[in-house]
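Schema walkthrough. Field components (list of strings):
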Amino acid sequence: MMQTPAVTEIRYPVVTSAALLRNTILILISLVFIAPFIWLILASIDAHAGWGIHLPDLTLDNFRAVLTRLGFNALENSLYLALATSIISTALGYLAAYALSRRYVPWKHSLMLVILFATGLPVSLLLVPTYQMYVVFGWLDSRFTTSLFLAAGALPFAIWMLKSFIDAVPLELEEAAVVEGAGIWQTMLRVTMPLTLPGLSVTAIYTFIAAWGAFIAPLILDGDPDHEPAPLAIFHFMGNHGEFLFGQLAAYSLLFSLPVVLLYFALSRQFSGAFTFGGGLKG
Amino acid sequence: MNALAGTADGLGPPQDPSIALSSQQDRQSLHWTSLLLLTPATLLLLLLFLGPLAYAFYLGFTNMELIGPRSQHYSFTGAANILRMMQDHTLHKSLWLTLIFLVGSAIIGQSVLGMVLALLMQPAIRLVRISVGAIIIVAWVVPEVAAALMWYAFAQSGGTLGLLLGQPNTDFLSTHPLLIVSVANLWRHVAFSMLMFAAALSNLPPDVLEAAEIEGASAWRRLISIKLPIMRPTIVTNLLLVTISNLSTFTLIYVMTQGGPGTDTTTLAIYVYLQAFSFNQLGYGTAVALLLVAIGAAFSMLFVHNARVTP
Amino acid sequence: MASVQFQGVHKRFGLLSAVDDLNLEIGDSEFLVVVGPSGCGKSTTLRMLAGLDRPTSGLISIGDRVVNLVPPKARDVAVVFQNYALYPHMTVRENLSFGMRIRHEPRARINHEVNEMARQLGLSALLDRKPAALSGGERQRVAVGRALLRRPQVFLMDEPLSNLDATLRVRMRGELSRLHAQFGITTFYVTHDQIEAMTLGSRIAIMRGGRLQQVARPETLYDEPANMFVAGFIGAPRMNFLPARLVGSGGRPCLDVLSLRLDGAAFHFDADHIATTSFVFGMRPEDVRWSRQVPDPSWPRLRGVIEIIEPVGSETYVTVRVEDARLLARFPPRTGLQLGDEIELSLDQAHIHLFDAKTERALPRLPQTAGAPGNDSIVHLQRTSRWQD
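Field assembly_structure (string):
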């Protein structure tokens, strides 16, 4: 004896109160997160920017003003450092990672642990002795040697990342190549590398992003004003308080931040939103 | 023999591929090609990483200075620097500040907020998830200098924070420097913990959670008794990584406050810089840096031990 | 009363229809097995019954209440998952007692019940281990124990034996039967293995593509499959299918199969059937016999050549090429036959199955034996028989 309401009468709640609460809290948090950005964006297009936020006096002059020789120079220096660091650490890291992945290396396990710990060492510790060394070698005030230092700092991370990508390539492919007579260079370049291209780009981009924002290393190791990368330029800008500079400061910082943000999202799109929340997450 | 087959039921982690390859070549000896591949990286690491590291261990026990007579004629002073540290009140303050910063902003702040965010994000509407996620991640990706600048403007007198709190003329960087800097750091780094926990959450076995639901566990119960315990390894790893990376925060603090006002935000990382390059005390500065590393190592061992002890 | 009823239940995922118009009734204490190939909707149905998924439309009832809006924990059901879903960070004891602990039952009672259940399932020595330290069979027993401790009205099992090796599976089948006999809980059991279905179920529901094909006792499914899918799914090796044509010969329906003309009078042809004329003839391998071993000369015969011989110990499967078709037959073990031998087969005319080639439905036999009602709907809803101990 069952009660049978008409089939169409079963209606499920569309929005639960829990879901509503959740989404609201998230939106509130994101508003809090956006708050610091507001100044940056508004001031950069404001002809009369101060520290506060107000309706901007719309203009693009700030951007025009900072894209002077000085401004460009600093950006170019940052580009140099970032590119050099990225290339050096990725290239050397790849070779080392390949050897660690495919070959016998004594004490490999301990070595990998040491490398892992090395990724966490504070730069401060290394800078003082490195400075001394650079004094002795005469390596101060050079963009290239600064990049070397940055690359050395990025190398442990690069090796760790690249090794995990190389590990994921099935060994059979390389064995097949060996059977057909390929030497180690050919195998590495023709077989493994194309397949680890995603891993290579991740590592290259990550190290690029890290070096793009490098502050303390160039601060200490390179005193030549012509070599000043953008972070240092911004820092010195900040020291010069004057009403007329706020807008330019903001505009410059915005320009400086943009490439990295774009790179990051391009990177995450390649990995189908693995680093964002676009996909891959189960509800 | 597929080296990637893992354990018998196929569920273990992939084994080191080199085990298979080297079984074809010399079994337990270093091939010359391996050496060749490793050399460039090793050279660079030795020169600019391990070299300075070893040098630092020496330097920390000297009285070398940046300029002046002691830059050339310095000597090994043994435990003198350590004695000096014990009497250095600024160092004690710095230590204290560092601990507050670390525990507040990193260990508690980023871990808790990161977990809360990950938990809120998982079942949220896709649009909300993507946009909120993007904002939090942009805060992380933006160069540290830009982040520092934004927060500097935010907390200035006349800045946005004052506006929001109804105290437009307060310079929060003067009144609550450590707090502002800690919050700025939290703002910047929470994305990392959030992503890590989000990944762990999405890897939770759904049928285990369904089983709990059927057994009558409420959502809160499921979180406390099932989700968090299963995620424990991730939580510990996160704590470890967060501690290590936050310990050496320099740029954010330096650009915002230069360690001030006075020494109110001079964490150990800042203090190292100040000692070495403002006061020219290279030897002492390095000693403080070594202290920093020692603290980091102590925390790491604490976490690793905890992770290993719990089955 | 812990019966279960599905009325007009649909489940759609976007454009995909996972369950299509399911009408099914399960009696109190009955052991119903739902079987079908993967993707047939059986697991989805189980999940809807458990409350883990919502039907797109339709009603689900447990006992005499409609449970569509009732959350899983209030439905008084217990689920055994395919991968057991044990709490990995808890010991066996904690796994078993979790439900009771969150209901804040008294500690003494929890311990007593857990120990008793562990004893019954042979888990007493394992109580302090974690799932990772258990074998597959042990984990499965813990999952079953955990479900039993809930004292549910309905027991839901989602392919619980799939991950076990063959010998263990056979043993656990027996265990489950024994437990059902002992506790008498209404059971909804999902599997893709038709042997499991045949041995465990008091009734079996076969699903395909989201639609219920037939619900009946195992013997009925075997002897009177409602359509070609059921006929081919139940019974291994599979039934032989051959094209057949309906030929009227002097007012008496006949079927042309290969070179044979068979008497079709045993079947009920309605107007639609006669219009079609195109059918499928089905015969199970054990009904395809070696003429030499069949004394009755009236059985229809076919000659062919042996293509494959597969001795399996207790029998021999012989595949014979007859004209342009192949027939698989089950012969007694030692035949002395060889590949390439010519052989004569006799067909057991009493066990012919006939299907409409287009609709794939079985043609009902005219009732000279206790059989199905003479309608042409594909779903045979039979009143449940109570599970007898």
